[in-house]
Input
Amino acid sequence: MCNDFEFFYTQTLKNNRDDLDLFVQNIQKHFKAYKRKNPNFIYLIIYEKHKDGNNYHLHGLVGGLGLDLYVNDNGYYSLKDFEDLGYNSISKIQDKLKVSNYITKYLTKDFVKTSKGSTYFRSNGLNLAKRIIIDDLCLDNLKLKYENEFVKIYKENLS
Output
């Protein structure tokens, strides 16, 4: 919610799909190279296991993409720069709150960690949320949108 992400991003690998460390190393190299070409490129990427339980893929949020987007065979945007890794799919974010809730669920659902313990990677310079403590918080005008054991997300009730 603190950054201007424009797109939801998904990436699978065609090789070494079962080696999370190698997967993350390869994708990070590509992201850093793409950032050198497109300095406004921002990203927050989360690892996830495929339903088969053996392979990995990524989901995340991206913004500041260059002009090399094209529409793939499935009707989604893709980036040519990442095709050599495997399939990538990019769709325009329609509702920032909904996509934030979705990403939050991924972060708290089934943590997938690399051997170094990371569960995600992000571009440098992102705006980070600040924790504030308000003693007399009035929730009368807020509606609970999502809750789990780690977080509660409220939205102002304007109706």
Q: What stands out?
A: The chain is about 20% helix and 30% strand. Residues 7-129 form one domain. The beta strands are 7-12, 42-49, 56-63, 69-71, 77-79, 88-92, 120-122, 142-147, 152-156.
